[in-house]
Amino acid sequence: MTMPTVSNMPIKFECHHCQKIYMQKYSAEALVNYPHCPDCDTAGMLLGSVETEDILKHPVTFIKSFFNLPLLKQGT
Question: How many domains is the chain partitioned into structurally?
Fold first, then answer.
């Protein structure tokens, strides 16, 4: 049995309080303890891996999250 490969793509979260989406580089810890929203410090909801559409809509946010820079927000 083979283990699935882990994505190197950032993962995205949604803050229901602020109605914002933010990204963070993939880590096993991020899947257990969701990172908090950079605006209101509320834990967000996991939306999944960043998709091609996200990269095209928010290239700067994607690049900064990919290189493990601080959490960044993006409007919905």
Answer: 1
* Mean per-residue pLDDT, 40-57: 86
End-to-end CA distance of the chain: 39
AA letter at 72: L
Residue 23 belongs to some domain of the structure: yes
Q: Tell whether 45 is covered by a domain.
A: yes
pLDDT at 19: 86
Any residues with CB less than 8 A from the CB of 63 and at least 6 apart, and which? none
pLDDT, tens digit (0-9, with 9 covering 90-100), for 29-48: 766 777 888 888 888 888 88
pTM above 0.70, yes or no: no
Domain residues for 59? 11-75
